[in-house]
Design a protein that fits this description.
- This protein is mainly alpha-helical.
- The protein folds into two domains: 76 residues, no CATH class; 35 residues.
- The chain is elongated.
- Helix 1 crosses helix 2, helix 1 packs parallel to helix 4 and helix 2 packs across helix 3.
- It is 63% helix and 0% strand.
Length: 129
């Protein structure tokens, strides 16, 4: 498992917010969670990587947003459905081909169209009205 952490910094040494972000980020957004979070929050991927490594403190509203996504994902029942599809695909190579084709088509249809994450430092949204 790749961690994007410098070798001198072990996972146990991460600040609590960084640990929490890493734990829930992958669960909520999948393997490419850092890129997807950057895209969703309109921040640079490097910013998310800094939060995940503990180099910068992750803002509270980001953790709340990811926790909300995770709760929504769990509530939907889709995680269980995908595990079932994965199990069936492991048993049948033909099913794997068909299922992956349909899932790829579905992903293209439902994927939000937005620009790639920006490579810039995170700047909190203004709270002024």
């Amino acid at each position: 498992m790749r961690t994007n952490l410098p070798p001198e910094r072990a996972r146990d040494d991460l600040p609590p917010k960084a640990q929490r972000l890493r734990d829930i980020g992958r669960q909520a957004l999948g393997e490419g969670w850092q890129y997807r979070l950057a895209q969703a929050e309109n921040v640079g991927v490097k910013t998310v990587q800094r939060w995940a490594s503990g180099e910068r403190e992750c803002p509270d509203h980001i953790l709340v947003a990811v926790e909300s996504l995770l709760a929504e994902w769990r509530k939907s029942g889709l995680a269980r459905l995908l595990r079932d599809v994965e199990g069936e695909a492991e048993r049948s190579p033909t099913f794997a081909i068909v299922a992956s084709a349909h899932l790829a088509d579905l992903a293209q249809r439902i994927k939000p169209s937005s620009e790639a994450p920006k490579d810039r430092r995170y700047k909190p949204k203004s709270t002024e009205s």
